[in-house]
Design goal:
Elements: E1 2-20, E2 23-44, E3 50-53, H1 63-74, E4 80-86, H2 97-113, H3 120-126, H4 131-136, E5 140-143, E6 148-151, E7 159-164, H5 171-181, E8 189-191, E9 194-198, H6 201-207, H7 210-222, E10 227-228, E11 235-239, H8 241-248, E12 258-263, E13 269-273
Parallel strand pairs: 1-9, 3-4
Antiparallel strand pairs: 1-2, 1-13, 2-4, 2-5, 5-6, 7-11, 7-12, 8-9, 10-11
Helix pairs in contact: 1-2, 5-6
Length: 274
């Protein structure tokens, strides 16, 4: 079987001081976007999974292997798979690529093999705090440690100009830096009554100071305000498709991993073939 697993944008993100088992509680409005990885899944007669990623250095203990292990942990399930993932969502960019792969895999295998899906709390603790959002797959207000998902109907079209710098920001390091700074001082803007802000801006720019220069370059080039997604390094602005296309043409694509027009979609998993 073959599926698409789509990325996400955090339209806003608040990091709270309260911890649960060492993880910060958050509040975030998240939407899936039409940038996706492709996952090919083949059942094999083997006693272990074979997992491969194209052209990326992904550790052996990754979100996909953790998802498969957790599925087996809570189900009477002993099948193994060869899984090949074509990566289009950049790693450590704040777009949820690894979490999207995990969420899509949990959803699809649970559907096909009639398995119980692990609890959101287990998923957040054992795989990653963004993964429950991708199991739900819909635009949502996410709270707790990523385990409380409240689907949100967003009727307006959301088009975004997405820029992914070459700089990378580890989410774990961003949380550590947040704790060290103990200062969010987040500026809040709005777009069609949607609040736009991100508490990771100060921590992430402390880790990668060049992100400040990149934001200044993007805003001076396009005359639009750019916002961080997740812990970065991706930045985005919103607007009409025609206007964003004009802004796209003003950016030097060679300076970045990705410069792309993306849009909000309604669901983060799509089946290509069963």
């Amino acid at each position: 079987m073959k599926i698409k697993s789509f990325g996400k944008i955090n339209l806003n993100l608040r990091v709270l001081d309260e911890l649960v088992n060492g993880l910060h509680k958050i509040e975030s409005l998240i939407v899936p976007i039409d940038l996706y990885d492709v996952i090919e899944i083949t059942e094999i007669k083997n006693d272990k999974d074979i997992i491969s990623f194209d052209s990326m250095n992904i550790p052996e203990n990754n979100t996909v292997s953790k998802s498969l292990n957790l599925l087996r942990e809570i189900n009477d399930f002993s099948k193994y798979f060869e899984i090949n993932i074509t990566k289009n969502i950049p790693t450590e960019s704040g777009l949820g690529g690894g979490s999207s792969n995990a969420g899509a895999l949990l959803s699809k295998l649970s559907e096909v093999y009639n398995l119980s899906i692990p609890s959101n709390e287990d998923v957040a603790q054992k795989i990653g705090s963004d993964v429950p959002f991708f199991i739900s797959g819909q635009p949502a207000f996410v709270t707790g440690v990523g385990d409380i998902i409240e689907p949100k109907k967003i009727d307006i079209e959301l088009n975004m100009l997405l820029v992914v710098p070459n700089e990378i920001v580890s989410t774990a390091k961003a949380f550590l830096e947040f704790d060290r700074l103990k200062n969010t001082s987040t500026l809040v803007n709005t777009y069609k009554e949607i609040k736009l802000f991100n508490d990771f801006w100060n921590p992430s720019t402390t880790i990668e100071p060049n992100l400040i220069k990149i934001k200044d370059y993007l805003e001076s080039s396009t005359d639009e305000e750019f916002f961080l997604s997740g812990s970065g390094s991706s930045m985005f602005c919103l607007g009409t498709l025609d206007n964003l296309q004009k802004k796209f043409d003003l950016i030097d694509e060679n300076q970045f991993r990705i410069v792309k027009l993306v849009k909000k979609i309604d669901f983060s998993l799509e089946t290509i073939s069963d």
